[in-house]
Amino acid sequence: KFKEQKTPALKVTVMSVGFGNCNIIRTPGGKNILVDTTLSDEGDFNFSTLAAAFSLYHISDFEAVILTNLKPENTGNAVEIFPYFKAKKVFTPYEPRELVKKRSYQEFLDFLGDETLKEKWDGFYAQALYRNYFFLLRTPLTPAEDYERPAGFRKVVSVTKGAPLYRAKKGDIIYSETTAGKDFTVTALWPREKKIIGTQDDLANNSVAVKIQYGDFVIIMPSDIMNDAQYEMLQDSNLDLKCDVLIAPYHGHMDASLGEWFDAAAPALVVIPYSYQKEWSFSDGDLAVTENKTKALGAKPLRTDQYGAVEITSDGKSFAWTSVKTRNATREGESSAEDSLDVF
User: Fold this and answer.
1) Phi, psi of 73 (to 5 degrees)
2) Which end of the chain has fewer CB atoms < 10 Å from its terminal CB, N or C?
3) Domains held by the chain: number
């Protein structure tokens, strides 16, 4: 659906993959970065969809894969992707050696440290989290400090299979390059060194939020951070949240739309990665607050359930966007006849 750029440009594709997050970044230098892998499903449709998209964009590997938290809707397809699409580095909000430890269900909940999840240990979502974690551990992820270390006769360096695993925290530069005289960086805005606890959703509030900058253009992908994390971010006067494009936090839910935080970001475009999914997502009525705040800022909201996948391109100065669907031809919550495969 989307055309290749003939001149150096940043291209960000926000996939339309149900109630999940998956963003593909094509750097101005032609490298690929993946942010989240969306929700897995029994028929492997989501993985097949991602594989088709990667093939369409001629992607065989990624400079970095950022798994912003352990929620299934963010990392559910990681176990399927890594064997076929090599990741040179993998980032999560957790200490690598702690993340890869095999744990019982109760030990896993203790590791997360979310009291709400502990109280609801017998609920569907807590069990889905553990199942997602269990499958993630089947992928060949190795803490970066253990990825290459002397082994064998005379301690000749042995290269470990799989991908090196890193922790991403506030201030870390995940990737950088210079193209056409302009700097391109992917920087972690969150989480901080010491995680926040006792919130409505600690797992969400300690997600990896990233800032992508090419020249003067900025796009922020805050994953699932909610009002608590947004408030804490505002307490850091050195943290610059101003951006041209914002991916709405936590799929645009009203509990992730702190007014002062949105004011600090002041985007011109807000992409809301949302689709109703029975027994998994929230109602689209919970998007109203975010949509209204977006419009009050003079920005344009783009819901992926209405527009399909959204592509943003920038030359480092201005930016443009296009989508798979045409909003005028689509009633709310209904697919457009323009393109039935609207994910990319």
Assistant:
1) -70, -10
2) N
3) 1
